Amino acid sequence: MELFGCEYRPFTARFDGNTWIEMLLDRSGRETQTAVDHLKFRFRTSKVNGLILYGDDSQNDYFSVELYRARLQVSLNLGTYPWATGKTDNVVVAGSLLDDEQWHDVSIIRTEKNLNISVDGVSIWRNLSAIFLHMDMNRKLYIGGVPSFSNKRSVTVMENFVGCIEEFNFNGVQVIRDTLRSKPGLIMSEAVWSEVDWLDALGYPPRDPILWWGPPTTTQQLNISGFEIGGTGVLGQNCLPPTADPSVITFPRIEQSLVYIKVERGGETSKLTFSLDFRTFNKGGVLFYHTVDNDKNFVAFEMETVYGHLQVEVLLPGVNYITYTMPNNDSAAPNGTFADGLWHSVDFEITTNLVRTLVDGREYIAQQTFLEPLHFQKIFYIGGGRPQRFSFQGCMRRISVNAQEVLWSKLDPESRSDEIINGSCHITDRCSPNPCKHEAPCTQNGATFFCDCTNTGYSGAVCHQSEFFTSCSEVGLFYGQMSPQLRVTIDLDGSGVLDPFTVLCDFTDQSTPETRIEHTDDGYILVDGFQAPGSYHRKLNYGRASRAALTELTRRAVYCEQSVAYRCWNAKLLAKPQGFGDGTELTWGWWVSRMGRPRYYWGGGVPGLKMCDCGVFDTCTGNSLTCNCDSDGSDAPPLVDTGLLTYKEDLPVWEVYLGDTGTLTDDKRSEYSIQELRCSGDLFFDNTVTFVKLDANLELPSIFAEYEFDMSFLFKTTIKDAVLMQNVGRKSGHFFELRIRSGIAFRFAFNVGNGLQVLEVTTAYWLNNNQWHVVRLERNRKESRLIIDTNPAKVLVEAQERSFLMFNFDQPLFVGTTQAFTDGYVGCLSNLLINGVVQDIRGIVERGEKTYGLRPGCQPKCDTKPCLNRGVCTEFYSHYFCECGLTPYRGFICGREVGGTFNNGPMVKIDLTHLRDNLGTLEEYITVGFKTKSKNGILMEMLGAGKTNYIIIRVNNNGGITIEFDVGFGRFEVTTNYIVDLANDQHHTVKAWRTNIGQVWHLQVDDYPEIVKDFSDILSETADTRLDKPQAIYLGRNESMPPNRGFDGCMYAAQWNNLFPIRMIFEDPKNPFVYVEPPNSVTENKCGFEEILPAPEPIEIRPPIPFPPNLTLIGRTEDLTQQRTIFGVVGSLLVLIMLALFIICCRNFTLKKGDYKTKEAKQGAGHVSTVDEALAAPDADLPDARTNKEWWL
Fold it and tell me: What is the pLDDT of residue 213?
């Protein structure tokens, strides 16, 4: 085996706690101002605390890197000013267990307000809270420590770094290299380095006196970076490799009393002592256990499971039960726990009259007089052994029992568990970096971690999934009908970085809910005694709604407004101040937008014009051109300027500055009022796409997530089985799919190489009911969750015995179909959020990136009301169906008249006695269309129980329409009085209906005036107006009329309440309760109407799949020389074969053509004597076929 490469010769420095390096940035011209900082180094230490880097500035900038509790803590501030109100201090913690004497790589990159910290390849990103973008430094920059910790802002530790650092690179400056070159006096004298020249020892080439660009060897000159280097102490140059501690042992996992070390000490003693160091992240576990008198009495030292405090239990003969608990006195340890991953020392002793414990130098003593002599046996258990108690999980070292060190090599193999590891500490900090999102605290045991999501507003195993809706529009889907106003908490970006906040949702307009964000300054606020322009200042507090959240809210809204009002008593608002300041003040008062920009207009005004509402419309009082309050007082105070601020980019009002209110003793003052911010419309909720083709789809970037993935969206559909989303990885074999199943189940399935994992939620209602449904799903290191609407979450726990496998996809995320364009989804999809990022699916369609089978917005086909004549539209999104059963029409869109031809007076009777609900009617709605030349016949008759219980609509002998009825209070008629003869062979439609409990009749034909006949004046309160128990409906004539008095013409669109008599005549199969006399005498006819058909939809053709523009074919791996040889041989054989075939063909042709052609006589003609016989003689090769001869005489 050969190894190629370069020898690694790093620049290393060893710090002893009293040594540090200084970059002298306080010298003239050496101060720095950077927008980008990059710090990179490696370190190794056994200490838990130590300052690695510190630098600051006279303008409150600072930058510090320190090792705190074995973690890397970075603190920085980009500067501030005295009146700043926002937070500018930033503290970020990364890494863990960094005191293990191993090399750790650190990289810290700041780009303006973005910070990335990487420790051993694990990165943490943070957005800094800062006012400025640059870091200024004009004082000394310390590496490895500081001479004094006083006045060092943000420094937590009070110890300098002890350990080794190599390749310390700060903004391109190799600090250790330049220190070794420019300050040789700082270097510790070591034999290994003294044998060679120090330039060669540091890896530099031999110095050329002409071409050498580096510094001279004198210590007074600058190094090659251009910065002057200083320092204090003695800096070591080599860092010896760490030596393994044979006393360290690791208890890898928890088992009930099974994993332990059994130690034997010879003979019984009257004194028990033990000592050890331990470190763990797991609360609970037995550290030391000893039994006395056959397990009846014992001494136990363990960690309790609630807070991780240490606990001593002693039960010995003749002694009362002794127990006490000891918390960790380190103020940085949460809840005083010892399960913080740091080393802790324990010394324990029991003698005749006391129980003494020393933990991290703190002593605990329990005085006790033992009535009986103490006799401790020789068996002791370390790390477990106590029945019904869990073993200790973590690391121990320097274990000693009764003043004798416990050596792993000298232990009996049968007295120690095979799972225990000797020589190194193998514990993992599962809470670093914090896997819990949204600043939720993390706890852990030896197997896993836990997140406390209390009061975070998020749920799930890692507090990643928001518990709130994304907008008032989404709230309205579930609770909009409960109350016209609801105070709720919304989370605009779901699992994103924006915090949830409280709003007031107004559902007065169900189609456009309004969102209101209130602040703490309610009503009018008095301003008095602030004369200078802008001397009064107040910042509005919108609760938990941050500037970023309000920016997102107004960006999504269609319209926003905020009402403002200003009442003044001789105090101006937008007039230009005179005699104040340096003359640069534009107005007496102004307000600041959410983006921090001053705005010099008031309610009703517009940006750029220093005016109020009255100034825009030229209606201000007095001589003012800007505001009422800017007039010279021609009207009696108070004057008022009110209006709405509607420019979304400025809203809401963030700060208010006012002036010109005099002193507290004069008559100048003002009051102002800022109302809540109101926004309506929701572009995010309207970010919707409709799928109208089963093979239509959207393609989004493939799913990417490191450790947490979440998605939420809304859908509305009528399809029972469909794939909403699918993503695959062709190389990795990973798979992701969301599917609707059977109309009542929603499935989330994925495969990351460990088999198909499925989560399915079955609902008690239909998911394809054409209503909006909310889907939320999440996958993280601990579990996968699926939530549909408000149903309980379906949870799939990730296996903890294997590492977490992330999604690895190389294909786009297909939305609407599978990758093969099958199992298509039709319906609406909205509010798609992936990892807190809004997916602009509507924009993709509107910009024309994808259009096949897609429509922007939610556009169900039934929303265009395609069904005519009150037909019911059934939505399928890819098509629609018109249910015409409750109309007197037929056809694809209920646009075909169903009529019947009545010739020679036929009669139609529809028997209603079989109906269950024939209880009678007080009010009816009757309509019928007709076309006739005859002035007689019944259009429709409803016959009730009894001979005097009927309603008849007929054509009278004047060519009009008469309603003849008797429903219990006598026989009456209602007749049209039109001058038009309706029996004119034209189409007419009759509408008749009763109101007011059957006391008022209404009759109208076509668009002629409505005829109203009120019978209430002649009826008593108890009069019978009910048509009792309808028995039958007659068309054309009834049974008492002769055929010649029946209706003769065409009748259509007949309806009596919810019955459609003419449709019933032509039902298939034939209705047994419909009788026609004579049979089949009424034929179906459209009565001259043409059927109305829908306009044809444009034909859409799926565009062809584009060929990859940069497709590179994979080259063949065979040897080209071998290929050419084979091709040459085969080609030569083919040529030879073709040549041989050509020769054979030519030879055959020559043989057949050996006899040449001639004019000589045929073979049979040579033996005849005359010419005639020669011509008649046949060829000898042919049969004799002579013809008969004819002779002339």
Answer: 34
